[in-house]
């Protein structure tokens, strides 16, 4: 056995390192095996476990509060957007009505404006060579 093993292993409670005999700490020799459930229960009942649970409850409450605030904000934005959409639709209808009545009163001017706008649009969208 290496020298470090002879010095360190007895301090750790290991009583056999031959390979044939089992190696385990002496204090666990007669004790019952700890199950994951026992470990979880002990961790949950510890002060750190109680603190973590309290922090989780606080985080959940904060998340619910933020969710409510965001929901209220989204509802307000939706209402405002609906109001603006209604106003925009009304303005579009009014503009259409004005153009329609102008074209009925001055058909030659309306045709000239339409030709000019078409020419301008064509000149802007045509690829230059």
TrEMBL record:
A Pfam family hit: DUF883_C
Domain of life from the UniProt record: Bacteria
Keywords attached to this entry: Membrane, Transmembrane, Transmembrane helix
InterPro entries in the record: DUF883_C (IPR043605)
Chain ranges passing through the membrane: 108-127
Keyword Transmembrane helix on entry: yes
Transmembrane found in the keyword field: yes
Domain DUF883: 101-124
Protein name stated in the entry: DUF883 domain-containing protein
